[in-house]
Amino acid sequence: MHFALEGLAGSDALELAAQILADNNIARPPREGLIDLMKFLGGHPLSLQLVLPRLGEVQSVEKLMMIVALLLHLVNSARWR
Description:
This protein has about 80 residues and is mainly α. It is built from five helices and no strands. Helix 1 packs across helix 2 (about 30-40).
């Protein structure tokens, strides 16, 4: 059985993101980029907890979204082999 879980509401996702960034001593990126990342990740708490700490290494929301998209593509491609 498969259940599709929805992510957090926008304001809740941003609040969680702010806490994750603060916990990891990462400067908050521009709001627009952060909102785009929240939408890209679907506001899912686990995704936010896994991806946001990487902002300290990548330094760009856009680059991080490209990396995550590539990883998702690779995972999805591997499923069908």
